[in-house]
Amino acid sequence: MAKDKKLPLQSSNNANVAATATSAKTIEETYQKKTQLEHILLRPDTYVGSIEKHTQTLWVYENNEMVHRSISYVPGLYKIFDEILVNAADNKQRDPSMDSVKVTIDVEQNCISVYNNGDGVPVEIHQEEGVYVPEMIFGHLLTSSNYDDSMKKTTGGRNGYGAKLTNIFSTEFVIETADGKRQKKYKQVFSNNMGKKSEPVITKCKESENWTKVTFKPDLAKFNMTHLEDDVVALMKKRVIDLAGCLGKTVKVELNGQRIPVKSFLDYVNLYLQSASKARPDALPRIAEKVNDRWEICVSLTEGQFQQVSFVNSIATIKGGTHVDYVTNQITNYVMGIVNKKNKNANLKAHAVKNHLWVFVNALIDNPAFDSQTKETLTIRQSSFGSKCELSQEFLKKVSKSGIVESLLSWADFKQSKDLKKTDGTKRQRITGITKLEDANDAGGKSSDKCTLILTEGDSAKALAMAGISVVGRNYYGVFPLRGKLLNVREASHKQIMENAEIQSIKQILGLQHGKQYDSVKTLRYGHLMIMTDQDHDGSHIKGLLINFIHSFWPSLLKVPSFLVEFITPIVKATHRNGKVLAFYSMPEYESWKESLGGNASGWSIKYYKGLGTSTSKEGKEYFSNLQMHKKDFMWVDEQDGEAIELAFSKKKIEARKNWLRQFEPGTYLDQKEKLIKYSDFVNKELILFSMADLQRSIPSMVDGLKPGQRKILFCSFKRNFVKEAKVAQFSGYVSEHSAYHHGEQSLASTIIGMAQDYVGSNNLNLLQPNGQFGTRHQGGKDHASARYIYTRLSPITRFMFPKDDDILLDYLNEDGQSIEPVWYMPVIPLVLVNGSEGIGTGWSSYIPNYNPRDIVANVRRLLNGEQMEPMDPWYKGFRGTIEKTATKEAGISYTVCGIMEEINETTLRITELPIRRWTQDYKEFLESIMTGNDKIKDPFIKDYREHNDDTTVHFEVIMSEENLIMAKQEGLLKKFKLTTTISTSNMHLFDPKGVIKKYDTPEQSMIALYTCSD
């Protein structure tokens, strides 16, 4: 039966296979228990680092200077030297009177000694261990004075290995110490890797004697060495220099009997900078700050690679760590802000700034923790440092003025240029992959200079162009439609430009190469670029943006004759009953002709061409049949042309742009009879019309508080006697038809909805009724229903605000041959103060807070009675928080708006109001961003929240720890929980009765202006 006996189950790696005779090991041989000492000697890399030679480029000290060179050294040997050195430095923290460290490195005798004065090791027997304390801490493993983590220590040792490792990796290790307090001197010799020890020799010493000296002979065989090599000695000497820099002027450090000439951390840093400056034409900058007793910082510059030299409690953290990050992040954030402000296209990230920095840090940290026993990287959290290192504004300003900002700006320009070149086009006959491009057959070929690329405003304009080129053929004409307005590349970020498909497509189609100087069109795929847009203000803006794009990147191209041309179509056609047809290419030109007719306008029928889509295919063919009549060349005359383009599109020209718009004269237009258009004339006579229209769309009139779209809606409401409700979508159509509204009906529907909204933070008096879901404070009105499903009509109060008897007195406009809304209405009280306003237009922005209608009525009565008005503060219907005046300046008044928060108990807060225009959904997202369970944050501040909000009220309950609630109260609950905002009257820009932008410093000032106007 023995042969039927089954063997145990065997694994696939043969672990259970019986050992052969030649490789047989007993259980005892396979599984061994080692003493701690044996384990250290068997696995030294776990404790002191590698015992193999490493070749690395490091700083060393030789010939009285720092040198950065490649060296070969054994990390383990370097570490056992460092342990003794750090022990000596630690004594300065225990005994501030320590003022001497002496290091001797005897290469011939393979002997190293480190001496420091100050309190020695207590020479007495440890009652629990039964041995003298010096023997215990230098000759027994896992003994230390640093085990009690409840005590905050700023020493280097922590885990109980330290000097014992030096003892273990030495053939001889001698500890000598003088304990003046007990008047005993102690000496003991260890040998054979701490395997043997002599009996301690104890003699008497003076009370004034206090010192410790460690002498050791490294066991070079353990490090595969025969003698102390030059590279290792140079590295050891550098560590002695480190010690002098860290300990400063109060400690005299000697090496081989010579005093180290470093008396401060700044002296120490200078050794590096002097060495690094040798290869430079100029000296490296040095910006230093002793932040407090625990932090010394110095910053210099590098060329594209971050460098750091740092110490924690005199330990050289050669790989940095959290202390270096703490300091570096403050610098990078500050510098990054300056660079991105100077060039917003830079889109600079922190790591880019960091790569230009050389940071030196000397820090004392409570109970430091490292990534390993070799202590190369500090890992303890910033919150546990035991001190703060907040760099001063003066220091940060000095860093920013050191040349780093200029270097980073140059680097950013280079990087952007390099990135943009990746999207360059080339002159080739066939390009593919560009949707909607109708390429000319000869584009990129021998006759490319004769080819014209037509850029159209949208697909409908492309259809018209395609109908037209059926007349002239496809060999020399290509068409590409633009999707809306081109990006303003002059103010766009680098990322925006790189991600803008339209910009990249135009470069590819034309064959444009970034940074290239173009004196001719020979290297391009097309010799001419034709802009074909609607003849309205937005069409002019698109032309301007395209001109701006080319001027920003290839200004020389605008100087090439006939490269840039525009295709013009009529904006109005007048047809006489006798068949005569007149075409007008601008509204001022048409208005001038109409005025010249006087009373002889009968017999003419007028057709308005609101866009290129209004023209028929037949008309398109007619245009292209007489191409010279419809084509106009842009012409570069002098640098005034470039200045005009910058004036219109550069952020740097904001003030000049404001003056440009102030000087606008109604009736200005570009004479389309001219065949050549100067770029400066285009900007000053055509583009300015868009800028004015944009401003009027964005900023209300001081008189009625309305923008043009709102005024058209009010006009049509009165015209229709809008007392019976209708769908918002239907009413939009009515307004568009009866008020010559030239923009999309979706935009009109949004304006109607806005005029009817009545949630907290919207209108104090809504002119239209919100019959349906018009939006709530939950999402700031964005949660309104579709215009197809909600109804509106005039609010009963609206006709009281705008009396019907005044209608006949108003100055009505005339457009598209029909009488439309007035220049402005005249409300009985200033509506602009009742409902406020906000908008951004060309050159100006405007912000008007809401005010209480009762306060406004009271002040109107005071004005009528010739009395002094009372100052008014902002007020929002339904808002239960506070609005407090915080500052009064010439330019306006500032207010702090606060929500409502109350403390329920030690761990719960109740929030029942948010600041004005801080919407409930946004606030909910904020709470979630600081809550436990959010993986994106390291230190969540709250545990949870509960919500009892509805469409009109706010009610959050926030649950947090008692400790965090105390911290929040110290910081200020409202501030910590973002329950404050500021509003101001410093930006109250409005159109005055004459249509001129004017700034009002107070609401009362605008009321006086309105009173004067209506008088």
How is the topology of this model organized?
Elements: H1 27-30, H2 36-42, E1 54-62, E2 65-73, H3 75-94, E3 100-106, E4 111-117, H4 133-139, H5 163-168, E5 170-179, E6 184-191, E7 196-197, E8 201-204, E9 210-218, H6 230-247, E10 252-255, E11 258-259, H7 265-277, E12 287-292, E13 295-301, E14 307-312, E15 315-316, H8 322-342, H9 350-354, E16 357-363, H10 393-421, E17 452-457, H11 458-472, E18 477-482, H12 494-499, H13 501-510, E19 528-532, H14 537-553, E20 564-567, E21 572-576, E22 581-584, H15 587-597, E23 604-608, H16 617-625, H17 627-630, E24 631-635, H18 639-649, H19 654-662, E25 676-678, H20 679-698, H21 708-719, E26 726-727, H22 728-738, H23 745-756, E27 791-792, H24 798-801, E28 812-815, E29 818-822, H25 831-835, E30 837-840, E31 845-848, H26 853-864, E32 882-889, E33 892-898, E34 900-905, E35 908-913, H27 920-929, E36 944-947, E37 956-959, H28 962-971, H29 973-976, E38 980-984, E39 988-991, E40 997-1000, H30 1003-1014
Parallel strand pairs: 3-10, 14-16, 17-18, 17-19, 19-20, 24-25
Antiparallel strand pairs: 1-2, 3-4, 4-9, 5-6, 5-9, 6-7, 6-8, 10-11, 12-13, 13-16, 14-15, 20-24, 21-22, 21-23, 26-27, 28-29, 30-31, 32-33, 33-38, 34-35, 35-37, 36-37, 39-40
Helix pairs in contact: 3-6, 6-7, 8-10, 11-16, 14-18, 14-20, 18-20, 21-22, 22-23
